[in-house]
């Protein structure tokens, strides 16, 4: 071994500190290495491990691959207590290769039923916390095997998607296998029956946190038997018998938090819980329409009990709960964590409250309802910002997703609610989101980037994002190996690149190269990421300087590849638009010729004019128009059947958008400006010229101007003569000019 | 362990709250005590020994240039913009020094900064950055690629 990382010296014991005026120390000083050269053999283990801990799994793998010492440091148990596999393909083979490093694994996040099947191969016997999403296909059998192999499990969370195939049988298995279970939150189970709940009550004495969220049926009466429960959520669960609930649950001796959001609970059940339950301190009932309709209901009289509903002042309520009514800002969760409070209940209530609030706020943002406008502007947005600073990563993620979602009015037209977006900005949301985006955790990166992207549709927010250094951060994320992260980052750059003032900054941050690179990286699999990257490049290519950079970065090849091979219309449209913009700079750069010379480019664009999608046809015609300014391109377009295609397009789009019509006609005109005119000659001979002239509208006169000598005078009908006269009058061109040509 | 006795200069302690540090290149630097207090290695010595602050405290692993950078960083309350002016070598020197001096906040700050530089970099870049010699056999390299395979596999589309 030719190098060794030194262990940190035991300098924490005070006696060992280096003293002054020791001859041997001075001696050491004299023998130090020459100035400026640092001996990296001296970098202590814990500092190297600290570097590892600041980086993503991919970067950790790179660090581990440098040398033997760093490899062994990369396997340190402290780096492997928690693992988030959500963005990785995870199968039995992968799990087996990870197993030696997972002996001390305590916390695992996974995504999807296939990953769930592989979990047991990790042989992580000490696993305490397991959390999975996208578990629609997860079966009772898989879940039962997982809990049987991990009997130390303390926390199990599956959601927010419905666990459609999980039944009460699996819940019974959980109860029998995991005696230490203290937290169980499951989403979307069809039927949670009395047997299952009673098994939990019997075998899991430490179970204090239960969530049966968005379920279809839950046995209310049996839940009344789980005496250990302190926090209970049945948010979004249907067919609850509230009369049973209100007669039984207030007797739960330890219940301090109850979440009944998004249910049909009414005032009387809420009243009974608040007035009769001994220890209840928080009742969350957000989005409960029956409760909200009863305007006479007020929760003010229940001292020391907080009702969180759409009609209450949530911040004031939380302040009274956390700080006994001392006035605080809107950042209560953070304030609470930084304050030195020793209320044991509250230390448990707050993480639970954050989790449940983030859950309900996100689902409310995802299915917008009438009448929530005031709530979002006055409280919802600020709550999401506050939750983004939670110490729980999944709460932060959901809050960021919530922010990304609640500002959107219309997905299709990318329109957002400016009032909401600017409110987020005013409350410091941009800085918070950029902070999350800088985390090494990819789940946070992608959700934060998505929120930044959506908010940046608003020009004022985009400006703030740029000012806070957001462009650099997004350009960095666009280089991510994680497709979801790269996709959201490219979306952010797309929206930011609308602003003229941001284009140069994106180029400067290396954004153009990153966007081009990610087209190659996901050229075959990733419509979303490709559309966003091409869209951003299209906006950037509209700028003179940036268009040169796009070409230098290999953008022409990338975009032509998309125009040729990609089957997804959104990608085709953006790629064609990008090529059109690249070719729009005339003589100021050589892009026009470069696009034409790229193999298959012109054929691909001609092909795209046949697309059933208006947007694709319009951008393809636009690209051909711009490209037709170059002599060689004109020939090549005509050789690829461009003239016929454009005539057909011009004729077919008489009722289409003016943009499409203009571009089709413009492209035809572009082709007609030729020294030989031989392309148009061909089609003028085989079509009725009148049809063409009608189809190309205002461009007719210009095409006529170019092709006049090709039209034989005796074939001109009366109708056509009138049209020509009309055109000429409008354009104030003397008929004699035409004939002279 | 021998204690430093410096009776003749004790009077100076009262008026100037500074500690003299001697760097590896033999430069004596007077540093404000508030900054010195962030250096656990010096602080623990001063607190225990009630030492004479005018006798230079030797820092055989920290050069005067690095100490200058550290003092500026602390004075600027760990300013990102200032840190961005550092060369790679300077960053690495500050990291080693922060670790040696046991400066928790500085260590976190500089480790994050260096981690940012290493983000998405190749193994070769990292080896060059830290002057690490590749001591793997080709077989071991193949094995490592296999153990790290999981991070380079993306999730399939649903």
Automatic annotation (TrEMBL), chain A:
<dbReference type="InterPro" id="IPR032675">
    <property type="entry name" value="LRR_dom_sf"/>
</dbReference>
<keyword id="KW-0539">Nucleus</keyword>
<dbReference type="GO" id="GO:0048527">
    <property type="term" value="P:lateral root development"/>
</dbReference>
<dbReference type="InterPro" id="IPR016024">
    <property type="entry name" value="ARM-type_fold"/>
</dbReference>
<feature type="repeat" description="ARM">
    <location>
        <begin position="554"/>
        <end position="585"/>
    </location>
</feature>
<dbReference type="InterPro" id="IPR011989">
    <property type="entry name" value="ARM-like"/>
</dbReference>
<dbReference type="InterPro" id="IPR000225">
    <property type="entry name" value="Armadillo"/>
</dbReference>
<dbReference type="Pfam" id="PF00514">
    <property type="entry name" value="Arm"/>
</dbReference>
<comment type="similarity">
    <text>Belongs to the beta-catenin family.</text>
</comment>
<feature type="repeat" description="ARM">
    <location>
        <begin position="600"/>
        <end position="642"/>
    </location>
</feature>
<feature type="repeat" description="ARM">
    <location>
        <begin position="469"/>
        <end position="511"/>
    </location>
</feature>
<dbReference type="InterPro" id="IPR006553">
    <property type="entry name" value="Leu-rich_rpt_Cys-con_subtyp"/>
</dbReference>
<comment type="function">
    <text>Promotes lateral root initiation and development, independently of auxin (IAA) and abscisis acid (ABA).</text>
</comment>
<feature type="repeat" description="ARM">
    <location>
        <begin position="428"/>
        <end position="470"/>
    </location>
</feature>
<protein>
    <recommendedName>
        <fullName>F-box domain-containing protein</fullName>
    </recommendedName>
</protein>
<keyword id="KW-0677">Repeat</keyword>
<dbReference type="InterPro" id="IPR001810">
    <property type="entry name" value="F-box_dom"/>
</dbReference>
<feature type="repeat" description="ARM">
    <location>
        <begin position="510"/>
        <end position="555"/>
    </location>
</feature>
<dbReference type="Pfam" id="PF12937">
    <property type="entry name" value="F-box-like"/>
</dbReference>
<feature type="domain" description="F-box">
    <location>
        <begin position="37"/>
        <end position="83"/>
    </location>
</feature>
<dbReference type="GO" id="GO:0005634">
    <property type="term" value="C:nucleus"/>
</dbReference>
TrEMBL record, chain B:
<dbReference type="Pfam" id="PF03931">
    <property type="entry name" value="Skp1_POZ"/>
</dbReference>
<dbReference type="InterPro" id="IPR011333">
    <property type="entry name" value="SKP1/BTB/POZ_sf"/>
</dbReference>
<dbReference type="GO" id="GO:0006511">
    <property type="term" value="P:ubiquitin-dependent protein catabolic process"/>
</dbReference>
<dbReference type="GO" id="GO:0016567">
    <property type="term" value="P:protein ubiquitination"/>
</dbReference>
<dbReference type="InterPro" id="IPR036296">
    <property type="entry name" value="SKP1-like_dim_sf"/>
</dbReference>
<dbReference type="Pfam" id="PF01466">
    <property type="entry name" value="Skp1"/>
</dbReference>
<dbReference type="GO" id="GO:0009867">
    <property type="term" value="P:jasmonic acid mediated signaling pathway"/>
</dbReference>
<feature type="domain" description="SKP1 component POZ">
    <location>
        <begin position="18"/>
        <end position="74"/>
    </location>
</feature>
<dbReference type="InterPro" id="IPR016073">
    <property type="entry name" value="Skp1_comp_POZ"/>
</dbReference>
<feature type="domain" description="SKP1 component dimerisation">
    <location>
        <begin position="104"/>
        <end position="150"/>
    </location>
</feature>
<comment type="pathway">
    <text>Protein modification; protein ubiquitination.</text>
</comment>
<protein>
    <recommendedName>
        <fullName>SKP1-like protein</fullName>
    </recommendedName>
</protein>
<comment type="similarity">
    <text>Belongs to the SKP1 family.</text>
</comment>
<keyword id="KW-0833">Ubl conjugation pathway</keyword>
<comment type="function">
    <text>Involved in ubiquitination and subsequent proteasomal degradation of target proteins. Together with CUL1, RBX1 and a F-box protein, it forms a SCF E3 ubiquitin ligase complex. The functional specificity of this complex depends on the type of F-box protein. In the SCF complex, it serves as an adapter that links the F-box protein to CUL1.</text>
</comment>
<dbReference type="InterPro" id="IPR016072">
    <property type="entry name" value="Skp1_comp_dimer"/>
</dbReference>
<dbReference type="InterPro" id="IPR001232">
    <property type="entry name" value="SKP1-like"/>
</dbReference>
<dbReference type="InterPro" id="IPR016897">
    <property type="entry name" value="SKP1"/>
</dbReference>
<comment type="subunit">
    <text>Part of a SCF (SKP1-cullin-F-box) protein ligase complex.</text>
</comment>
């Amino acid at each position: 071994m030719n190098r060794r990382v030194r262990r940190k010296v035991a300098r924490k014991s005070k006696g060992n500190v280096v003293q002054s005026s020791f001859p041997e120390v001075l001696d050491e000083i004299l023998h130090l290495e020459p100035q400026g050269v640092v001996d990296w053999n001296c970098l202590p283990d814990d500092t190297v491990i600290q570097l590892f801990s600041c980086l993503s799994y991919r970067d950790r793998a790179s660090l581990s691959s440098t040398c033997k010492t760093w490899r062994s440091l990369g396997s340190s148990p402290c780096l492997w207590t928690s693992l988030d596999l959500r963005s990785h393909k995870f199968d039995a083979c992968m799990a087996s290769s990870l197993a030696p490093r997972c002996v001390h694994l305590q916390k695992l996040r996974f995504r999807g039923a296939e990953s769930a099947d592989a979990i047991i191969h990790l042989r992580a016997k000490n696993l305490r916390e397991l959390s999975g999403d996208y578990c629609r296909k997860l079966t009772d059998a898989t879940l039962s095997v997982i809990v049987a192999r991990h009997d130390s499990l303390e926390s199990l969370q599956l959601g927010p998607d419905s666990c459609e195939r999980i039944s009460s049988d699996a819940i019974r298995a959980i109860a029998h296998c995991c005696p230490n279970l203290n937290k169980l939150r499951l989403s979307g189970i069809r039927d949670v029956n009395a047997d299952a709940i009673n098994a939990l009550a019997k075998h899991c004495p430490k179970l204090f946190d239960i969530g049966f969220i968005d379920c279809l049926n839950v046995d209310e009466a049996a839940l009344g038997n789980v005496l250990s429960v302190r926090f209970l959520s049945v948010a979004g669960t249907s067919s609850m018998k509230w009369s049973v609930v209100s007669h039984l649950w207030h007797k739960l001796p330890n219940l301090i938090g109850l979440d009944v959001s998004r249910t049909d609970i009414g005032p009387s059940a809420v009243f009974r819980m608040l007035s009769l339950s001994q220890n209840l301190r928080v009742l969350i009932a957000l989005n409960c329409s029956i409760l909200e309709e009863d305007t006479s209901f007020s929760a003010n009289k229940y001292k020391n009990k907080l009702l969180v509903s759409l009609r209450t002042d949530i911040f004031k309520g939380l302040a009274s709960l956390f700080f006994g009514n001392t006035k605080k800002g809107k950042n209560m969760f953070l304030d609470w964590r930084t304050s030195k409070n020793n209320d044991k209940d509250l230390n448990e209530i707050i993480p639970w409250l954050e989790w449940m609030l983030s859950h309900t706020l996100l689902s409310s943002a995802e299915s917008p309802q009438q009448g929530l406008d005031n709530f979002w502007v006055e409280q919802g947005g600020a709550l999401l910002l506050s939750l983004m600073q939670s110490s729980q990563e999944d709460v932060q993620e959901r809050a960021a997703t919530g922010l990304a979602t609640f500002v959107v009015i219309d997905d299709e037209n990318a329109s957002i609610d400016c009032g909401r977006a600017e409110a987020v900005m005013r409350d410091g949301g941009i800085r918070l989101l950029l902070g999350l985006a800088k985390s090494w955790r990819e789940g946070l990166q992608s959700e934060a980037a998505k929120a930044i992207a959506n908010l940046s549709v608003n020009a004022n927010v985009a400006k703030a994002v740029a000012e806070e250094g957001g462009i650099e951060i997004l350009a960095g994320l666009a280089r991510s190996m994680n497709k979801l992260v790269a996709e959201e980052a490219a979306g952010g750059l797309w929206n930011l690149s609308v602003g003229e003032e941001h284009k140069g900054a994106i180029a400067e941050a290396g954004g153009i190269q990153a966007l081009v690179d990610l087209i190659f990286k996901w050229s075959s699999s990733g419509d979303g990421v490709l559309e966003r990257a091409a869209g951003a490049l299209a906006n950037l290519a509209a700028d003179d300087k940036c268009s040169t950079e796009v070409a230098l970065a290999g953008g022409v090849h990338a975009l032509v590849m998309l125009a040729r091979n990609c089957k997804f219309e959104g990608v085709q449209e953006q790629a064609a638009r990008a090529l059109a913009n690249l070719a729009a700079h005339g003589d100021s750069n050589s892009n026009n010729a470069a696009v034409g010379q790229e193999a298959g480019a012109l054929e691909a664009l001609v092909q795209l004019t046949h697309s059933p999608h208006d947007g694709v046809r319009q951008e393809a015609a636009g690209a051909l128009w711009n490209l037709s300014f170059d002599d060689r391109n004109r020939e090549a377009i005509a050789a690829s059947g461009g003239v016929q295609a454009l005539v057909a397009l011009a004729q077919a789009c008489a009722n289409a958008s003016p943009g499409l019509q203009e571009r089709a006609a413009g492209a035809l005109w572009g082709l007609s400006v030729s020294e030989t005119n031989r392309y148009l000659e061909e089609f003028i001979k085989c079509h009725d010229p009148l049809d063409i002239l009608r189809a190309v509208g205002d461009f007719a006169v210009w095409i006529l101007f170019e092709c006049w000598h090709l039209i034989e005078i005796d074939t001109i009908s009366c109708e056509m003569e009138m049209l020509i006269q009309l055109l000429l009058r409008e354009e104030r061109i003397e008929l004699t000019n035409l004939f002279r040509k | 362990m021998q204690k430093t006795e410096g009776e003749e200069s004790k009077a100076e302690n009262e008026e100037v709250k500074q500690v003299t540090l001697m760097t590896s290149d033999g430069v004596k630097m007077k540093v404000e005590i508030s900054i010195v207090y962030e250096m656990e290695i010096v602080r623990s010595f001063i607190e225990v020994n009630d030492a004479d602050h005018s006798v230079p405290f030797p820092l055989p692993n920290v050069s005067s240039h690095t100490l200058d950078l550290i003092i500026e960083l602390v004075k600027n309350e760990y300013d990102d913009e200032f840190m961005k002016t550092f060369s790679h070598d300077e960053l690495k020197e500050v990291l080693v020094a922060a670790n040696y001096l046991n400066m928790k906040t500085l260590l976190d700050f500089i480790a994050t900064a260096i981690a940012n530089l290493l983000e998405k970099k190749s193994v070769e870049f990292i080896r060059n950055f830290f002057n690490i010699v590749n001591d793997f056999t080709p077989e071991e390299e193949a094995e490592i690629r296999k153990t790290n395979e999981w991070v380079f596999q993306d999730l399939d589309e649903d």
